[in-house]
Design brief:
Length: 442
């Protein structure tokens, strides 16, 4: 059986992700890490969902039951938890968040002592303990304790500010930030303000239910309106746990994620900071990005979908930059995972240096037409076992179009994408795929 998905354990709070599951997972995880323990401390952070209280308390109970001391730091971005886990010398770190999902969902992400997301083999080892219930309980003085520390945000703010070039400042930049009523609702504004920007922040009043609700990276239209209203130079929308960012130019138009990656890759290369002159992205990236980078002497590596897999490819090829077109961008010199605020700062540094408006600075190449959709499925039947699937996908390729057909790692959905020179033809081919897979899977 599988417990972990593409990015930790995720589901509807109280229904799928119950207090019992959270406590049991914490006991399994604690039992695993205790075997390699150096400090006997585990860090726990969360976003702003109300269910975070329930899950946090369950995790604390599970960890202390197997002898771990727990440090609770309250609402903090996922990349902050990754950074602080290593910085505070903890054996592991836990982030309670369902990222961009609605408030009623929640999730548990786990980091090792170096702030890295867990290797698949480690996840499997924890799952084995979980399902076999082979927990290593302790008694008497060995039972763990928990304490809450509320001032660690300062450490992370200093770390983020250090990622911004020392020879630049934001005194001539007006920026709008949409923190999605999520984990960055305090931090993002403080960082940009302390670096001198004229900051307008929206959706920074979480109430436990409004995280990601018609705001943030999944709904950037309000950000776009505010950028135009305040005549800002650029705007950034984060998701609930702030590991993703969506940028909007001065006209209120969304800057495509692949164009953002392309511009930042070129910026890093110009300053001799692009390790091995290469970038890692996922299979979802537009082929135009690869062609653009190749013209500028930059190699492209591709991974499966998920910033976790992008990071794996980065490590395999000794890279320091990569990301997903959805907004998870990794600057591994500064962060162990996607970091929305770090990415936003790097984008502004590039914008200042370019001396151009954002609409021009980030529009360095044209994308190839790409259409995509999702369909709900009853069961995730392996594609190779679906009769006729190979034939219809081969047909798309024979037409000269690229395709990506894959199951979501977190939902019962099949994701379909077709890319090619003609958008109308791409849509026709996508419609054929949708009709075929709906008949087979719905």
């Amino acid at each position: 059986m599988k417990l972990f998905g593409t990015d930790g354990v995720r589901g509807k709070a109280g229904e799928v992700l119950t207090p019992f599951l959270a406590m049991k997972l914490a006991m399994a995880m604690g039992s695993y890490f205790r075997k390699h323990s150096k400090t006997n401390k585990i860090l726990v952070g969360k976003d702003t969902r109300k269910s975070g209280y329930m899950i946090e308390n369950s995790i604390v109970a599970g960890l202390t039951a197997v002898g771990y001391n727990v440090i609770q730091i309250g609402p903090m971005p996922t990349p902050a938890v990754a950074f602080l886990t290593e910085d505070m010398r903890c054996d592991a770190g836990i982030m309670i968040s369902a990222s961009h999902n609605p408030f009623y969902d929640n999730g548990i992400k786990i980091f090792d002592s170096r702030g890295n997301k867990l290797d698949v083999k480690v996840e499997e080892a924890i799952e084995k303990i979980y399902f076999e219930e082979s927990f290593e309980f302790v008694t008497d003085k060995k039972i763990g304790r928990s304490k809450r520390i509320d001032d660690v945000i300062g450490r992370y703010i200093v770390h983020i500010k250090d990622s911004f070039p020392k020879d630049k400042n934001l005194s001539d930049i007006r920026v709008v930030l949409d923190t999605a009523n999520g984990a960055a609702y305090k931090l993002a504004e403080i960082v940009f303000d302390e670096l001198g920007a004229d900051v307008i922040t929206i959706h920074n009043n979480p109430n436990g239910y409004n995280i990601n609700e018609n705001c943030g990276a999944m709904h950037p239209s309000q950000l776009a309106n505010k950028v135009r209203e305040y005549r800002a130079d650029i705007g950034f929308a984060f998701d609930g746990d702030a590991d993703r960012v969506v940028a909007v130019d001065e006209r209120g138009e969304i800057i495509d994620g692949d164009k953002l990656i392309g511009a930042l890759a070129l910026y890093l290369k110009k300053h001799n900071k692009l390790k091995n002159d290469a970038v890692a992205v996922t299979i979802m990236s537009n082929s135009a990005l690869k062609d653009f980078l190749a013209k500028n002497g930059i190699k492209l590596y591709k991974s499966k979908v998920g910033d976790k897999f992008v990071l794996e490819v980065m490590k395999e090829n000794e890279l320091n930059f990569g990301g997903e077109q959805s907004g998870h961008i990794i600057f591994s010199d500064f962060a162990k995972t996607g970091d929305g605020v770090v990415s936003a700062l790097q984008a502004v540094a590039y914008l200042i240096e370019s001396g151009k408006k954002a609409s021009e600075a980030f529009n360095l190449f044209e994308l190839y037409p790409q259409v995509q959709t999702n369909i709900n499925v009853e069961e995730k039947i392996p594609l190779e076992k679906i009769e006729g699937a190979k034939e219809i996908l081969d047909k798309v390729e024979k037409e000269g179009y690229n395709h990506i057909v894959r199951y979501s790692g977190t939902e019962n959905k099949l994701r379909l994408l077709v890319e090619g020179s003609n958008k109308q033809k791409a849509q026709e081919l996508l419609d054929e795929l949708v009709k075929f897979f709906k008949a087979k899977l719905s």
